[in-house]
């Protein structure tokens, strides 16, 4: 894991990947965390390291991480605890669990926490970078989908506002047509609306558009 001899071709000529923020590598062995960070940095990523879940959460309070590699077995809280906390803060964060254990229980626990990938030690740089690229692409798609959903909601709300304005315009046209037949009622509704809105400005507590329509 610590040896960097015979660097594979994937590290010498990394494929471009969209930036998705910082990466965080969490392992209680500083040499392992530093090695993984160097491999990721050769992929063009900016990496921070932490040697415990407490340190990782402290860093997450100060930085936004798009990708996190976390070892499962660490003193105190585990990498699974970290995954639960980070996913609760940002569902789009990509958490790759690293473990030397191949037990079914660990794999099932990682899946239940919506971990995005699973690497078993010892792994080579190519496997690590493949997981990183897949995670970054998944995060990019999630963020794009969320942005599209927000834009769609904004368009629906704007369309609803347009329909309300058309509805109000139709009501006003009908009222004016009816009032025009009698000189004593001409402009009456408009005056009542203006007086009501003036009172609303003083008193408050009522939806302005609903009052105007009423």
What attributes characterize this protein structure?
214 residues, disordered N terminus, 5 strands, alpha/beta, 12% strand, 8 helices
Descriptive notes:
With 214 residues, the protein is α/β, with parallel strands linked by helices. The protein contains eight helices and five strands. A five-stranded parallel sheet has the order 2-1-3-4-5, sandwiched between helices. Helix 3 (53-62) packs parallel to helix 4. The longest helix is centred in the C-terminal third of the chain and has 55 residues, at 125-179.
User: Tell me, what's the shape?
Assistant: rod-shaped
Strand order of the largest sheet: 2-1-3-4-5
Mean pLDDT: 76
Give the uncertain stretches in residue-range form: 1-20
- Distance, first to last CA: 73 Å
Q: What's the short version?
A:
The chain has 214 residues and is of the alpha/beta class. The protein has helices at 9-12, 30-41, 53-62, 79-89, 104-112, 125-179, 188-203, 208-213, and strands spanning 22-26, 47-50, 65-71, 94-99, 117-120.
How are the secondary structure elements laid out?
Layout: H1 9-12, E1 22-26, H2 30-41, E2 47-50, H3 53-62, E3 65-71, H4 79-89, E4 94-99, H5 104-112, E5 117-120, H6 125-179, H7 188-203, H8 208-213
Parallel strand pairs: 1-2, 1-3, 3-4, 4-5
């Amino acid at each position: 894991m610590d040896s960097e001899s015979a660097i594979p071709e994937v590290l010498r000529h990394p494929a471009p990947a969209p930036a998705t923020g910082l990466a965080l590598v969490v392992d209680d062995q500083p040499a392992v965390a530093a090695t993984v960070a160097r491999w990721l940095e050769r992929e063009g990523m900016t990496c921070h390291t932490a040697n415990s879940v407490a340190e990782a959460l402290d860093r997450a309070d100060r930085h936004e991480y798009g990708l996190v590699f976390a070892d499962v077995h660490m003193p105190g809280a585990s990498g699974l605890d970290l995954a639960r906390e980070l996913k609760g803060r940002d569902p789009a964060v990509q958490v790759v669990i690293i473990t030397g254990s191949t037990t079914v229980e660990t794999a099932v626990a990682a899946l239940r926490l919506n971990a995005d990938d699973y690497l078993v030690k010892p792994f080579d740089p190519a496997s690590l970078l493949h997981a990183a690229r897949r995670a970054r692409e998944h995060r990019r798609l999630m963020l794009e989908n969320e942005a599209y959903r927000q834009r769609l909601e904004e368009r629906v709300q704007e369309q609803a506002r347009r329909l309300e304005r058309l509805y109000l315009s139709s009501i006003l046209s009908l009222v004016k047509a009816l009032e025009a037949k009698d000189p004593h009622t001409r402009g009456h509704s408009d005056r009542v609306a203006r007086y009501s809105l003036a009172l609303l400005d003083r008193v408050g507590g009522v939806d302005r558009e609903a009052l105007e329509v009423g």
